[in-house]
């Protein structure tokens, strides 16, 4: 939620909430409006939709020579969490942009970044929301039943870190994590109950 005093975000949100099917030129316009309001300078560069980002809401690349930014916005994320969240993730990337422009090229998400985001952009959007939809693969420990979720289908055998830690770092077969079948997956018929030569 926007802070009570940030009427700018509120009015921009109402303006864009009526816009259907945001195009990249719309994203650029929104980004420029935000930067103009908080920094009183235009944003130079591009803003693009991305279908490749998974866990992050957006990211930015900065060209030192031209001073241009390239912001990529996770389309699925923006569609899922809505336009108010879109404004927040743009503020986040613009805080990076602001620091890059000051020559602070390796600021990460440390104190300088947090302060910039809060003081200049009036935002608390330090981390993206967790989008459960992208954690499609679930693994369960055979022993303690703890659950690990992954965005990727892990082909190699993985073991439970918690159980290994309790066992002085030693790995046992009993700590293996098995992939839980996803809903809607094709059911693989169990071999149990069928003898050789049985015809299904
Ligand atoms: Zn960031
Ligand atoms: Zn375990």
From TrEMBL:
Residues 175-200 are annotated as: Disordered. Residues 25-170 form the SprT-like domain. One of its GO terms (biological process) is response to stress. This is SprT-like domain-containing protein. It comes from Thermotalea metallivorans. The lineage of its organism: Bacteria, Bacillati, Bacillota, Clostridia, Peptostreptococcales.
